[in-house]
Design goal:
Helix content is 40%, strand content 17%. By secondary structure, it is an alpha+beta fold.
Amino acid sequence: MKKTTQEQQVIEVLRKVGGYATLRKLNELVDFSTWATKTPEASVRRIVQNSPEIFKIQPGLWALEEMRENVLRKFELKPGNRKSEDVFTHGYYQGLLVEIGKYRHQITYVPAQDQNRLFIDKRLGEITDTIELPSFTHEDLRRKAKTIDVIWFNERQMPSGFYEVEHTTDIKNSLSKFYELQDFNAGFYIVADACRMKEYEDKLHVSMFKVIENRVKFLDYKRVVNMYEGLKKVDVSVW
């Protein structure tokens, strides 16, 4: 009997789960008992990156070529349609931040206008802990907070982290929101592609944002994906 290769095992797992999966999920589902390697997760990463039968939807999210059309339809992704790609990308990183927050036992929130966006195959409103913004301050500040892409709250329902995903929008708008929310003992994070780091620095280091410039951090997409994939191994408090 011909031995099943590691690549074939990964492909079979993808078939069983509908043709797509995050790398984290693959590492949970693939049976490594017959793999003669001390680093099977690295092998899975190599397989999904190199196999002609697997394609990347987003960093950390992979699918089978044979099921490409069905998977893209499920994710409401239209090939060549920049708007659908941008919407899915934005929702994807919001979802990763929600999942990381839940892992850290934070109460997670996304704005009402984003709750119907997809995070892989679920709506963001389905995976957050609350669809209503907690009453943690007066109404004027709550109105500003309501538009933040992802908020983490602690067990006292006070904000512990504000996250703005800047895929195509103006970073200055997010910094202005952080400025208004500066009196809360919470972290401020701009989440974006690494190529926007210089733009972020230029807009942060102006006089109007001086009071918050040491509190705001830039998280590039790759780092967010890596933190999500390593939740069981890495304490995300290093942020």
